[in-house]
Design brief:
mainly alpha, 4-stranded parallel sheet, 27 helices, about 5% strand, disordered C terminus
Amino acid sequence: MLSSTLPVRPAFWNVPLWAEIGVYIIGLIAVIVCAAGIIRVIRERRAGAAPETPEGPRKRRIANLFCEVLGQSKVMRGASGKAHLAIFWGCIFLFWGTATATLDWDVGHYVFGQQFLTGRFYLIYKLILDTAGLAALIGLGYGAWRRFVAHDERVESNGRFACLIASLAAIIITGFFVEALRLAVQQPAWREFSPVGNLLSQLFAGSTPEFLTTAHLFLWVVHGLASLIFIAAVPLTFYSHIFKTPISIFWQKVSPAGAIAKIDNIEEQETFGISKYEQFTWRDRARFDGCTECGRCRGVCPAVKADTPLDPKSLIMTLRDRMRDAANDKELIGGLVSRDALWSCTTCGACARACPADIPIPDLIVLMRRHLALETGEFPEGLAGALENTASVGNPWGMDPGSRLAWAKDLDVPVAKPGVAYDVLYWVGCSASYDRRAQKIARAMVKILKAAGIHFAVMQEERCHGDFARRAGEEYLFQTAAAENIENLRKYQFKELVAACPHCFNTLKNEYPQFEGGTFNCVSHTVLIDRLITEGRIKVSKSQFFTVMHDPCYLARMNGITAEPRRVLETLGAHLREAKHSKADTLCCGAGGAQIFMDRPARINVIRLKELKDTKSEVVASACPHCLTMLTSAQAQQKEGAKDEVLFLDVAEIVAQQLESAAAEETSGSQRHGS
């Protein structure tokens, strides 16, 4: 036992001089090899890549980097995320412990003649390292169980990952045994501050000092070599995401989630979108390289759930692997990436939200769609007609522009006039203008606006805003529509531009500001209704009913609007139930990304309907006309006898019904009072 009563870190205990010198030499080589590997990776990314000068506030990028890397804010979702958190911070503390030990001996001992890892600080240091190592092992154990026992389909369970998990676990375990063997020999009074090592040291009770010291030196060498080889090999293995993923996070998209990048000076461009791998920029390649292969994108993608050809994880990994295979002469579209896969994306953004590397997968898909749309003119069945109709008559169904306000017949809806100041300009949208089911939403909005006494109007010149065209890759049509709509909107004076369709709202709020004069105060109808109720400008009666809120992707995920519609429903007396996927993690209805206009088998809406019906609610509330169309269609596809009595209503429709109830009660009360 040690005679000293002061705890002091025993640097290089039982380690001969040759091993002490060797660890520094090999360590230096390992660092040089690692640095060379990182430089090679960076050069590989930039070789032949298209130039790009990313914009965006650097301070915001740095803040996001710290939040998502150190805070693991996106990774922590779910059990696998918490396991990764344990591995990440466990290894961070172990690395910190090794660095601190080096400073303690090389600087504290040799330079100042005094170690600082002594006393209480040293004991806390030991406790932290043992806890960190144990946490990392538990995380690795969960990872192994998930891959090789539970066989989670989102991740691979092959020899590669078995070696990766086993190698890191072996380094940690040998470290614990090195500590255990030293404790078995020294048996210091403070050994309880190394709980794992102390427990393992009991295995060697009764062993001779010669055996313990020999075993200690052997394992110390094995542990040291394994650790240094691990460092040198980082750029060559899966663990390269240690530096690759933070780079992807730093260069993440900082524009609104619902905004697709604009093609500047589109009339002057000679090529559109991406048709060759060389057209991806170095930042795109950094994103491919930042993929952690976690499979979260695959787990949330509605296209995967519906068994379409699109698998976002496979897509990104294919593009990443192509970067390292310069000799691969396969065509990008139709070779590396199938056309069917590109046209299967709903651009719902679920994959981008789930991705811990912040890879904007829908944006990359739209870039490739632009080539098909603007250079080759290739579209799925049905979509070409919708685009032609939008270009010619301003709506995807080819309806007469003169009948755009037919839905307002007998409602005495004011039409905007130049020079008149309005509180609200109500953007009706194509669905509510022409689709009979969606027209009920527009009529409900008019009732609400009138009941609140709001000075509002609609715009006679309104035409399709082009959201679906942009996401189908037809950027030219989108920009043409945007220019026309912006010019017309600027004729009128209004405080708020209110839209009852999330696609209209997202485009007007997040994409029209990309154009000169295109910035307006855009408000979702659910936010407006919530405010009107809160301020007491409309009175509603309560009616007890069970409802589930289907959150539209472009309202909840893209724009973070989830509390307002729920607050409105609760005010109306609704007993809210949540679906398996809800709020920002909602499941797409299958309409987005121009899917609603493609003649393709629809299964996403059926899957979503089942989730909603599993809540056993009487009413499915939504805030998007496209969602109502898709869910109603899914209901119609069900076999006779399998249909449940479920109402599909927009939040505005439910409020309008309760307004009518309130008005009826008021009238009845007045009559009773008069009698």
